[in-house]
Amino acid sequence: MRDHSDLQQMNERSLVQQSAVRKATFSPGEVKTLRPFSIWEISQFMFHVPADTLRKKLAEDPSLPQGETEEDGRQRWFTLAEINELRRRVRFRGKSLLPKRPKGRAMRVAVSNFKGGVGKTVVAQHLANAAALDGYRVLCVDFDPQATLTHSMGLTEVKEWNTVWGIMCRDLCREADRIADGYDDPDDCPYPASDELPQDVQSIGAQRVQDFIQSTCWPTIDIIPSCANAAFVEFASAQYRSLHKAWSFFGCMARYLDELPDDQYDLIVFDCPPAIGYQSLNAAFAADILYIPSGPGYWEYDSTTSYLGQLGDAMNDISEGFSELAEDAGITLPKQFRDIRLLMTRFELNNPLHTAMMDAFRNVFGEDLCDSPIEMTRAVEQSGRFQMSVYEQDYRQMTRETWKRARQSFDRAYDEFRDTVLRAWAADSAQKEEV
Ligand SMILES: Nc1ncnc2c1ncn2[C@@H]1O[C@H](COP(=O)(O)OP(=O)(O)OP(=O)(O)O)[C@@H](O)[C@H]1O
Ligand SMILES: [Mg+2]
User: What is the CA(245)–ligand 2 centre distance, in A?
Assistant: First the structure.
């Protein structure tokens, strides 16, 4: 017979191996670093000008970042910080290189589907990377205790109080006090104030808004990370709800993000767990846009269908069951999204089953299905193992065609994503002007 101690021992053996794998995959001292980018990449994929035009601009103004020259002297390489300085200072034919950024707060996009392994994390990571290379400042939020995105971003030692769980504890404390303060006589309040909540909730809840945000090796990507212990948030949240029955548990992340200064980020990308629970509901309630990746198989189609139904039902139940409580917390129900898009992932162009599934998705979802699927690529399979996105991989480590193809597939998906975000921003601005 075997029991929990077997599971714990297996876990210990596996953790030893895990740290060995990390040692082998992260460059020196287990710290993930971001590579520099060549003039070829910058001109072709970022600035969209001929490489010679860019070289000429750099030669004309020696005060511009000049990058590091390769040992053989052929190619120059620039850090992302240098590329961003070029964006701020250089114009081509009078055109700015800065990305469009309407006023107002960052757009929030939840990458979500309760089907496991459809490519949510790969999509979230690549969209965040592509946006950063496009000049945007990005915050990623890892809602998944598997913490794949957190690890992919190079973070290894994460404490549970720094995760979405911590944000929920902090929110419970703040909401408990707001609700108690609403009573002229605190003794009339039927709910506990924060100092009556369990000690651990109070101490986790005492953190400040910026304490949850960590930097990554990308200078313009930060992350609210996750870790295995954050899986406990699902049990804990149920317990907190019974401690405080007026807590709008689904609004924690939206309230938290509202506290960030509007111009701290341009985009906030959520990587959701393969489940509908407290964390994914918080992600949905905080999101302006839902991005739903799905693979091209029958099971994935079935799963995506039931995900849509279950998320719809869960949000409807909240609208009907919690309307008073939400109104008191200033939340308007039903929750409105600016857009909902489906994105086909792990797509093989020459696979007739995949093209048939793409047609089926198109018939059913019409314009809501993104035009450009994310192709299945060796570069990504490899990048999964090395925890690196296509953008992070050095194209000299593989055939340039393989890398270029993979990059272009993600770039096309990103271009469509950016259009969706810009449309949502425009709609937001128009609505604000009306008010
Ligand atoms: N476009 C792609 N080409 C090749 N492999 C891919 C692609 N997208 C995802 N994968 C691989 O598929 C696996 C699952 O991807 P990923 O972790 O992104 O899925 P997920 O939906 O986030 O999974 P989970 O539900 O467990 O969070 C990974 O091994 C990843 O490397
Ligand atoms: Mg994932």
Answer: 31
Q: Which of 329, 294, 325, 290 is nearest to 311 (CA)?
A: 290
209 in the same domain as 83: no
C-beta 122 within 6 A of ligand 1: yes
Q: DSSP secondary-structure letter at 412?
A: H
Is 14 part of a structural domain of the chain? no
| Alpha-carbon gap, residue 120 to 110, rounded angstroms | 10
Q: Is there a single domain that holds both residue 160 and residue 296?
A: yes
Domain match, 224 and 282 both = yes
Q: For the chain, what is the mean pLDDT?
A: 91
Residues 63, 167 within the same domain: no
24 occurs within a structural domain? no
**Residue 318, domain member (yes or no):** yes
Half-sphere exposure in the Cβ direction for 292 (13 Å, CA): 25
Report how far residue 230's alpha carbon sits from residue 169's, in angstroms, rounded to the nearest whole number: 12
Q: Is the same domain home to 111 and 89?
A: no
Tell whether the model's pLDDT for residue 28 goes beyond 60. no
What are 208-223's pLDDT values in tens digits? 999 999 999 999 999 9
Neighbours of 88 (CB within 10 A): 10
Residue 18 CA to residue 33 CA, distance in Å, equals 19
Instruction: Assess if residue 232 is contained within a domain.
Output: yes
CA–CA gap between residue 193 and residue 189 (Å, rounded)? 9
Q: Does any ligand 1 atom lie closer than 6 A to the CB of residue 295?
A: no
Residues 163 and 312 in one domain: yes
Could you list the residue range(s) of the whole structural domain that residue 143 is in?
107-426
125 lines ligand 1 (CB under 6 A): no
Helix (H, G, I), strand (E, B) or coil at 149: helix
CA-proximal residue: ligand 1, atom 8 (nearest): 119
Query: Does the pLDDT of residue 4 top 90, yes or no?
Result: no
Q: Using one digit for the tens of pLDDT, what is the confidence trace for 148-204?
A: 999 999 998 899 999 999 999 999 999 999 999 999 988 899 999 999 999 999 999
